[in-house]
Amino acid sequence: MTTFDSDTYRTELDRLCFSDEQKVRMAQRLKAAARSNKVLELHGTQPATGARSDERRGSSRTDRSQRVRRRSPHRIAATIGIAAVLALGGGTAYATGTLARAADSLAAVFGAGPAQTELIDQIGRPIGASCTSNGITITADAIIGMRNAYAVVYTIEKDDGTAFDELDMNQNGTYNLVLDGGGSINALTALRLGIDASGGTRYTFDADPTDNAIQLVEMMSFGGSGVSLVGETLHFNATEIGFTRVGKDGRNLPSQAIATGDWNMSFKIDYEDLSVDLPAGQTFTINGNSAVVEELAVSPLGATITYTVDATDEASGPTSLETDAEKRVGHGDFTVTFADGTTQELGSGYTSWQQDGKTVVQKTWFFDQIRDVDDITSITVGDLTVPVQ
């Protein structure tokens, strides 16, 4: 677990310095925010109510330079985001390198176009917590999130400056690094929040091939009525860093350890939730069953839906897991259509529970890149399409 070191804190403060050009740019952005009557919220704690599921993401990232068009001011915050933390503090001291790494890490995952950068600055927060064991340091660079889901970007690097030569790039563009452990909230917090289930995914990439570090992205979502993750503590624990191997015949071999150790740290879940609620109560059909939408919301990062299916799952038969999964009442595609005509299949994964003889299903998925909500045209689940107005 990370601890507070007053000497290090003061040292990092002393290192903060800005050129005249940086000072001018910061002053201009602050004046612009004041003129537009926007409130500066460096550590916004807007409640994130309801929703859940598992997510699986691809690794493709596309930079788009579209103009940000804001909706009505249901969320009011200055757009100077991470840069404002550097200039004004906000209760926490960050070294210049920490903030630069946070911005770069989130841009590598969610897009680096001008509009995307502005949204990332508004939603994301730097972390800067780190832990070291057996000559390897893991740093939590930044966090970003939506109603009941978050994504954290970590950097893993050897203290001696050498590279992870053991790692290879997979066909999907990610690396074969594996981590025994990860980030999570503790059981008592989950019980207090009424969390019914959780799910997620993670992958690795190399943000800067010229250095010796590798980046790990961990995306998690939590399900339950009224779940708000902002302000809770995330605990990171890991005991082994290794890599997967594939035999000459193409079969997966047991993973091999690069290092074992005890990596532990804790930090706050902190981001600006820009989720927008869409109409609910519609009746639709999914996977052959009648269902009713209980809650539907979109954000620049993804979408979440909760619906009740008028059916329950029968006991699984002696068939394949894939076949059984396709027959379950919660199975069904979840699709988003964007203003440029493109679509993204958010997938059919979900979490569910039985209630009053029916099945409540929740799905939460991240988009493949951050987008302004105005660029989302509609959400489709089963035979229902809901326009985003």
Automatic annotation (TrEMBL):
Q: Where is the chain membrane-spanning? A: 76-95
Alphabetically sorted, this entry's keywords are: Membrane, Transmembrane, Transmembrane helix
Where composition is biased (Basic and acidic residues), the residues are 52-66
Q: Does the keyword Transmembrane helix apply?
A: yes
Chain residue ranges for the region called Disordered: 37-72
Query: Does this entry carry the keyword Transmembrane helix?
Result: yes
- Record protein name field: DUF4179 domain-containing protein
Species assigned in the record: Collinsella tanakaei
What taxonomic ancestry is recorded?
Bacteria, Bacillati, Actinomycetota, Coriobacteriia, Coriobacteriales
